[in-house]
Design brief:
By secondary structure, the protein is α+β, with helices and mostly antiparallel strands. The chain has one domain: Beta Polymerase, domain 2. 39% of the residues lie in helices and 23% in strands. The chain is built from 5 helices and 7 strands, in the order αβαβαβββββαα. It has helices at residues 3-19, 29-36, 55-64, 117-124, 131-145; strands at 24-27, 46-50, 68-72, 75-80, 83-89, 104-107, 110-113. Helix 2 packs parallel to helix 5 and helix 4 (117-124) crosses helix 5. It is globular.
Length: 149
């Protein structure tokens, strides 16, 4: 999967959600890269968090824009061309305190709302059982460790 395709999709999502007044937060590996201001590693998908009460509206907007929807436990998966989007809902799962503020960051001219740096650091410090996920978290932790704050 190409970073350019994911960034282009994210740019369209930012515009779509902004136009419809839906708050979202980028989390996971892409949020690390947005805080770093550059792409630091390949990514399998985009991870966005939205408020649960916006879930149905998000589904309607995304499917109208051509995204294919697959519900999952606690989140929804959408696909468009080669881009995979996982949408998590704020009342599912545990999020570190103060995760959802007003942080906006940029990579390659694409701006996006992101979870806070402290939230990312806490999330990436959790040791995962899946070795491939753990390896990405370790790489992300190194990147986060280089950032001020």
């Amino acid at each position: 999967m190409k970073a350019e395709d994911q960034l282009s999709a994210l740019s369209h999502l930012d515009e779509l959600f902004g136009h419809h007044g839906i708050e979202y937060w980028l989390f996971g590996g892409w949020a690390v890269d947005f805080h770093a201001g550059k792409v630091t590693r390949p990514h399998d998908d985009l991870d966005l968090a939205v408020r649960s009460h916006d879930g149905e509206r998000v589904r309607e907007l995304l499917t109208a824009a051509g995204w294919r929807h697959t519900p999952e436990e606690g989140y929804s998966v959408y696909e468009l061309d080669d881009v995979r989007l996982e949408v998590a809902f704020l009342d599912h799962g545990e999020w570190p305190p103060n995760s959802f503020e007003h942080d906006v960051a940029e990579v390659a001219g694409v701006r996006a709302r992101v979870v806070t740096l402290s939230s990312l650091k806490a999330d990436k410090a959790i040791v995962r059982d899946d070795e491939s996920v753990a390896a990405k978290d370790r790489a992300d932790s190194v990147t986060l460790g280089r950032l001020p704050g």
